[in-house]
């Protein structure tokens, strides 16, 4: 337990800490750590069930085919021996499995701060911020509004601040007050200066993904030769379910893998809408859509870093609205986890809810999805903090509430909780207290009390009377106050001034050049 | 899947349904069912860890001893060969294990409505209402108030109404407007007339527990000979941790087991207060406190129905306040699950939170505890609906919100979600839709859409704009509205008039006799 002891002593002041911890710190949070998921995964599929979904996915690829709306990909796959009809690609299972076998089951992504490098795969479970909502809600505004750069910056500050957030996802809210042609330049400048965690690029056209790669190179202070050696960023793409890959998504991935960067392929198969109403069918379709892209990438760059994503949920059959954090969502995530292990690929899932405000429903739906991530052996948990309304709203209160849950999951995996050495069984302590005392004051307790238990930062454990006397504040309002306190104390992470200037110059130059086309 | 199909067709109108389903029903809920927990339990302890906790528990019993403040129990245990020093009992592990081996790993408890009989043990996971809070909160009152009979009746109506509540626990709120000497008579009359589910008796003095047994006999319309043959009710006791069993608790259990009724033994070991600060120590102590009572009961009535309970959590080391739904709570529940399987005993845990109001914190803490119940292989989940403030407050809104989560857990265990037959993989459906359609209208979807997915009753899946247009109501307020609707449509379950009159006459007579002493 000595390692854990050492790690816990860094609470409140590790070099990897987001902001400096002071006596006045807004919250006392857990230290940066790459949590290790020690739980045996929950596996609802029998071996025959795994085979059935695998066979279903293979037959989709062999018999039904997937559209690749990308001429370059079609040419490569034709060369690789796949049957092509128009834009439809038919892939044999031998080819798919041969290609998939080249993918690593584990890889690292470097951050500009080496203390924030991450490992994807193995038993790690890592969390990223909410990505890509076009709208924003907070308790002060009290309604849904279009995202702005300032809101995006504030959510990036939370991304950096919380040690339980391991990687930066896409824009935590889409800053629609910045023109789309240059938005990626401004937000990436903000991301690279306000955070020092692992970066993400949208695959929305050549210019965007290549600009991000250049900016990451500058921020890391590396040459092209160094950059291409191992991942320093990643992109995440969605297929256009059913059975279609769009041009820019595949294009962006090809640009990334050819320069050594990582890709996450996440079909969005809502059962009953873009996929069969049966969960096994929705999972099989999702697997097929993901594997054919990963097979392409492995053919182009054998051994490149790929993650298989899942976004299989269901619709509300009364309204057609997407549902999240449902029992069906949990089981499909677990099933996908079994399939990811079958293929030897790292896996991504998400923290999700359909709720519109940071209330009870938001937290039971999100809890369901986060425990499904744990149960499925997920390695990357996207949208783990801040998501509302099926991903259409980002909320700082929800971000902070989610981080409480994420910290509890991190703590849940600390081996000291389940240690059973003689000092843990504590027979001497039990003997000394006997049947007429209590354990508050004894040495066994005193030696351990500071780190024995999870310490919350937004949960209120006071009794009702004390809670009422302190204002009777409900969780979402408490989270809002924490949000304000964190913003007030936030300090941007250290950044080499030369690199920062170079980054600013790059942004200025690219803006002069007009940024990226907006005809996507 | 045919059984599931049949069961699902009973949705909205099974004979076992709580209230009659009509077009105007407040909610469309899932049918009564005894959910089967098909997940492999989460087991944080190695086999050596299990042995270490077992050995710790045995050494507590052998070397440190447990106080039994019950002369009859002391006499029995002396006769059984245990060493007795004053009120302290030392039990050898051979004796404990020999006695524990007599306990059934599974048993039934009959309800007065046979459709609501339950099986404790096996792979069943069953849910009971919140029990014993002295206080009440609802959104209309808006503050914490002392419990009343009317509030208790309303919560009993919810207990009956929701098919996902399988057994009645203790009083869902303590009706302090009824004098303590006759409270059990009035509440049991209410429980037995407003619900037809499995009954509970408090072990708070001879008169109370025996009155309840008489009332259950009357309600079931059985003779004493029939009554003693198998459980028709149960009691739940807590040890007075550390290391003590009080007089009335043991007395009540002895009265129950001698007449064939079931007992649940639940130590309340808050790590850092009444138990060691280390979770393995708190679990070992809890196991020791529970096993010595169960050993006593098995010696007295070999093969009697016993459940081992856990209520191991931790305190907030800053304030001493109890914490619930923490990572430490989850792990100790899982560890206790491993120990319960080691001893071959059915297990009880709880749905718990420290939150004071039905908000986000309430739901993440409760979700954590309910998923821990699933992960631990818990058979009886006490307090599964309606608990706030560490058990000091009952809330109808929280009850209804919790029932949404319980229904999702029930749905989560339906095998159809993870079925992988050809119709589930749905290759023909995928082929027919291809890459340019959607699945809404196709026959494969149409045939299944009515029952394909979990249908919520208090979750709101509308988008923000539609949600706002319908009033922008947060979850707790929506739950309050459902509470009112359910009360308005509630119909008490059928009850033989003769038995009801006999029950009323029993209550009247016992009140004339003065009820039960109140010097407990």
Rg of chain A is: 24 Å
What does the oligomeric state look like here?
Answer: homodimer
Largest sheet of chain A: 7 strands, parallel
Q: So how many helices of chain A? A: 19
Question: Distance between termini of chain A?
Answer: 53 Å
Shape of chain A: globular
Q: Could you name the CATH class of the domain at 34-39 and 102-414 in chain A?
A: Alpha Beta
Q: Give the CATH H-level superfamily of the domain at 34-39 and 102-414 in chain A.
A: Trimethylamine methyltransferase-like
Q: Low-confidence stretches of chain A at least 5 residues in length (pLDDT < 50)? A: 1-23
Largest interface: A-B, 129 and 129 residues
Mean pLDDT of chain A: 94
The fold-level CATH name of the domain at 34-39 and 102-414 in chain A is TIM Barrel
Biggest β-sheet: strands ordered side by side in the sheet of chain A: 6-18-17-14-12-10-9
How much helicity do the residues of chain A have?
40-55%
How much of the sequence of chain A is in beta strands?
5-15%
Class of secondary structure makeup of chain A:
alpha/beta
CATH architecture of the domain at 34-39 and 102-414 in chain A: Alpha-Beta Barrel
Work out the number of β strands of chain A: 20
EC number (chains A, B): 2.1.1.-
InterPro entries (chains A, B): MttB-like_sf, MTTB_MeTrfase
Protein name (chains A, B): Methyltransferase
Family (chains A, B): Belongs to the trimethylamine methyltransferase family.
Description:
The structure is a homodimer of 520-residue chains. By secondary structure, chain A is an alpha/beta fold. Chain A has a domain at 34-39 and 102-414: Alpha-Beta Barrel (TIM Barrel), CATH 3.20.20. Chain A has 19 helices and 20 strands. In chain A, the strands form five sheets. Chain A has a seven-stranded parallel beta sheet with strand order 6-18-17-14-12-10-9. In chain A, strands 2-3-1-11 form a four-stranded mixed beta sheet. A four-stranded mixed beta sheet of chain A has the order 8-7-20-19. In chain A, helix 5 (149-161) packs parallel to helix 6, helix 6 runs antiparallel to helix 19 (497-512) and helix 13 (396-412) packs across helix 18. The radius of gyration of chain A is 24 Å and the shape is globular. The N and C termini of chain A lie far apart (53 Å). At the A-B interface, helix 2, helix 10, strand 16, helix 11 and helix 12 of A face helix 2, helix 10, strand 16, helix 11 and helix 12 of B.
